[in-house]
Design a protein that fits this description.
Layout: H1 3-6, E1 11-13, E2 16-23, E3 26-32, E4 41-48, E5 51-57, E6 69-72, E7 110-111, E8 121-135, E9 142-156, E10 160-174, E11 177-192
């Protein structure tokens, strides 16, 4: 999957450019922006008809002593891409055959406990994932990110059902960064109903 699929016209939106670059860890998606402005926003929590909800208020209305008032200082950008694959995907053992965030020659996946033990998955793996972060900001700046690839087979048998796998990387950094960091990678395989029926 190349950058044009994830970000048509070289943009992920909201002023973020996207491209594929070659790194010591293989081809990677690079997201860049000249400035990522984060402005404080203010809210109050109100209850109407027994349901609580949050509404934005002006800065002048914000009272830090009021427990129903909130000051939020973060900004989020999300990109979602859906593309059809060749049926059926090998969701039980996707490594080597199906799209993952890192190839087997880049990371070492180790068996680990599944993060959702209340749901059935056949195998879960953890790994250290190389992520490059390069940004400037105040010493208290924090940056968090989550990237995932999910593959799923679906079919109708009285209702929609299927099986799938997920490969996810999460990272969190504090203070300005300029280089590679180890993020937390997690692969979950074999979740859902088997076998996948022939089409």
């Amino acid at each position: 999957m190349n950058a044009s699929v994830v970000a048509p016209n070289g943009s992920a939106g909201q002023g973020v450019d996207a491209s594929v670059v070659e790194t010591p860890s293989g081809s990677m998606l690079e997201l860049t922006t000249g400035r990522f402005a984060v402005e404080a926003r203010y809210y109050r929590v109100i209850e109407r008809d027994g349901i609580g909800r949050r509404e934005e208020i002006a800065r002048e209305e914000y009272d830090p002593a009021n427990p129903d008032h909130q000051r939020v200082v973060h900004r989020t950008i999300g990109v979602t891409v859906t593309t059809a694959g060749e049926y059926p995907l090998d969701t039980r053992t996707p490594a080597g055959d199906e799209p993952l965030l890192y190839g087997e020659d880049t990371v070492t996946r180790r068996p680990t406990d599944c993060q959702r033990p209340y749901e059935t998955a056949e195998a879960c793996f953890g790994y250290d994932a190389p992520v490059s972060l390069d940004y400037e900001g105040p010493d208290n700046v924090s940056v968090e990110g989550s990237v995932a690839v999910t593959g799923r087979n679906e079919w109708f048998a009285g209702s929609w059902t299927g099986n799938g796998y997920t490969d996810r990387v999460r990272f969190a950094a504090v203070r300005p960064q300029a280089g590679w960091v180890d993020a937390s990678g997690y692969t979950e395989a074999g979740r859902g109903r088997y076998p996948s029926p022939a089409r």
